[in-house]
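Good morning,

Attaching, inline, the backbone tokens for the sequence recovery test we're adding to the shared suite. The designed sequence is right after.
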């Protein structure tokens, strides 16, 4: 934990020295509305990917809420990005954007996730990159169907938890749409399903046309895989050593 604290402190120091890096965050935090009316921003997250499919599903990052907001969740084996451009308290999926990224190759590993929004050009895009400690690189992106000046409203930001309502909440009833409604409940509002800093940390960059050129390496966050995977790996190494002795 001392190593993790030092890394978070270092991240915060770097954030303080750069006007773009507004804060360092750890799992289970809620913030204000740093992405409200912001056209260009980037979120880098260090994440310990659980065994997949995930049980329960996890909320990793969300800003804004139902009506105008964005959310990043792990549902089963997919990272799901949902960008809500509809009406509050009603299902209006016509202008919404959502896409998925299958991260099965990263199961049981530490990964860096970069969620990036660029709304300052003629083509507004949202992209997601996942870099695993095992060297695997995955990515997907989507173009917004409408010209958006921002992808998050004033309804706060959650890291590893839900702040209040959520992007895609009302659209969860639509056939084929991801179940974002499951994340609005006590267990994701600081309860049993909240992700802590031992499994999720990150940095938010707000108001930047270009994010930092290099995505942080997965090991740079000071996170370690879940004990189940670590124990299996250790057992495998012991088995190899015993076979060699024979």
């Amino acid at each position: 934990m001392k190593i993790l604290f030092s890394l978070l402190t270092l991240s915060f120091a770097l954030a303080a020295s750069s006007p773009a890096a507004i804060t360092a965050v750890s799992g289970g935090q809620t913030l204000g509305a740093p992405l409200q009316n912001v056209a260009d921003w980037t979120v880098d997250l260090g994440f310990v990917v659980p065994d997949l499919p995930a049980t329960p599903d996890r909320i990793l990052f969300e800003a804004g809420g139902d009506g105008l907001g964005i959310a990043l969740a792990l549902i089963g084996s997919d990272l799901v990005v949902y960008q809500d451009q509809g009406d509050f308290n009603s299902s209006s999926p016509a202008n919404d954007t959502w896409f998925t990224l299958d991260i099965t190759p990263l199961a049981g590993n530490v990964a860096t996730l970069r969620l990036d929004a660029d709304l300052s050009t003629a083509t507004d895009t949202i992209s997601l990159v996942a870099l695993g400690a095992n060297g695997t690189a995955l990515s997907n992106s989507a173009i917004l169907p409408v010209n958006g000046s921002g992808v998050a409203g004033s309804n706060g930001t959650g890291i590893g938890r839900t702040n209040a309502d959520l992007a895609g909440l009302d659209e969860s009833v639509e056939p084929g749409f991801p179940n974002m409604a499951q994340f609005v409940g006590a267990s994701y509002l600081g309860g049993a399903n909240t992700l802590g800093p031992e499994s999720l940390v990150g940095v938010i960059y707000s108001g930047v046309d270009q994010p930092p050129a290099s995505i942080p390496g997965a090991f740079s966050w000071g996170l370690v895989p879940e004990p189940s995977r670590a124990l299996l790996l250790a057992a495998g190494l012991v088995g190899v050593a015993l076979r060699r002795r024979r």
